[in-house]
Amino acid sequence: MNVLVTGGTGYIGSHTCVELMSAGHEVVILDNLSNSKKSVVQRIEKISGKAARFFQIAIRDRGGLEEIFRKYRIEAVIHFAGLKAVGDSVEQPLRYYENNVAGSVILFEMMAKYSVKTLVFSSSATVYGDPETVPIQENFPLSATNPYGRSKLMIEEILRDMAKADPSWRIALLRYFNPVGAHCSGLIGEDPNGIPNNLLPYIAQVADGRREHLSVFGDDYPTIDGTGMRDYIHVADLAAGHVRTLDKLAGTGGIFAYNLGTGQSHSVLEMVKAFEKACGRSIPYKFAPRRPGDIAVCYADPGLARKELGWQAEKTLDEMCRDVWRWQVFARNNNI
Ligand code: NAD
Ligand code: WQD
After folding, report:
1. Contact 253, 166 (CB under 8 A)
2. What are the residue boundaries of the NAD(P)-binding domain, all occurrences included (predicted)?
3. What percent of the chain stands above pLDDT 70?
4. pLDDT tens digits for range 126-178
């Protein structure tokens, strides 16, 4: 298939491009490089041994999109492009709605214009808000606690309306839990700008001596050790889930939502311990107050994805930490 990957030089997008190319798909990457670097394209090509086409454009650039849809016989779109920092979204809501929601609408309009009606959308477990129970199933109530989450929810709702109005759309809403890890080659991984918001990139920078200590947000949650628990999933498993989703959509019309998670959860302190084991260094940490908006425990029921996509996460916590560390060392040594 010819697949357009928006946000394809980003963290999850780049791993998915590798997976798509290995499965024999032709990939066209679109990214405005607001949160990634062009050199990722060469690294994707190095891993896969195949050429990828790259366009540095934004998803709201109608002219740029027209050029791609006219030039290549795009058959499906995997839509990763978007801003994802929860804190920034609280401070700059309009930027998030404009980039994520308005940008997505323009992309979907262009898809409709060129009759490309197969879409995989990067949603998030954040659309479940603060769930009443865990594990989380796809039919749980949806809500948002910040503009980033609301942008995901709005896009999901727009897509549900589109599927209702035109049943020839084939749409998958993939709700990721906590993506971590990096490609086992060590050539691509998460490359945060500035101070990392997420746990694993922060731990990796502490291990590498770039930050003094980790602040553990909260020690009084009702969990095994008082720290927050999440469903960490290896990005390579996540990437494989997208390829399986394209296979599924090839055979069915309509709109579907799937949790992509492992069904397991780990505390912050368990993650610290696992990372220490992977890198052979100690990770200094200090307890700090709870981070506003955080919930105690979040993990998926991945049963629907297993049943309908034939997909399940395979990689262990040790592999996640080992691969993050390998990538951290590569990125440092190569000034990435
Ligand atoms: P990322 O920032 O690494 O990748 C997103 C890419 O989109 C970046 O390369 C960025 O330059 C690009 N981009 C942003 N706005 C754009 C625009 N208007 N036009 C073109 N390109 C644009 O993030 P990621 O972690 O790879 O996340 C990918 C998607 O998955 C995002 O939509 C994110 O919201 C979603 N998601 C991520 C997580 C996570 O924890 N990483 C969890 C759930 C959902
Ligand atoms: C994990 C745990 C923190 C950093 C976020 C978004 C969510 C989704 C995934 C996109 C929590 C603790 C963290 C630190 C810490 N993204 N922590 N010290 O909050 O589950 O989810 O990323 O859709 O929308 O909200 O992930 O990695 O930030 O935090 O103690 O320096 O680590 O409190 O318990 P989170 P995270």
Report:
1. no
2. 4-323
3. 100
4. 999 999 999 999 999 999 999 999 999 999 999 999 999 999 999 999 999 99
What does 81-104 look like in DSSP terms, one character per residue?
A: -S---HHHHHH-HHHHIIIIIIHH
Q: Determine if the peptide bond prior to 147 is cis (ω within 30°).
A: no
Q: Which ligand does the CA of 201 lie closest to?
A: 2
Digit-coded pLDDT (tens) for 239-264: 999 999 999 999 999 999 999 999 99
CA of 280 to the centre of ligand 1 (A): 31
Model pLDDT, residue 136: 98
Q: With CA atoms as reference, report the closest residue to 311 among 241, 249, 255.
A: 241
Query: Is 72 labeled as catalytic in the residue annotation?
Result: no
Kindly provide the b/e burial profile for residues 253-279, where b requires at least 16 CB atoms within 10 angstroms of the residue's own CB: eebbbbbbbbbbbbbbbbbbebbeebb
CA–centroid distance, residue 215 to ligand 2 (Å):
12
Q: Which residue in 11, 128, 148, 202 is the catalytic one?
A: 148
The answer to whether 185 touches 48, Cβ cutoff 8 Å, is no
**Mutation test residue for ligand 2: of 83, 230, 262, the one with most atoms within 8 Å of CB:** 230
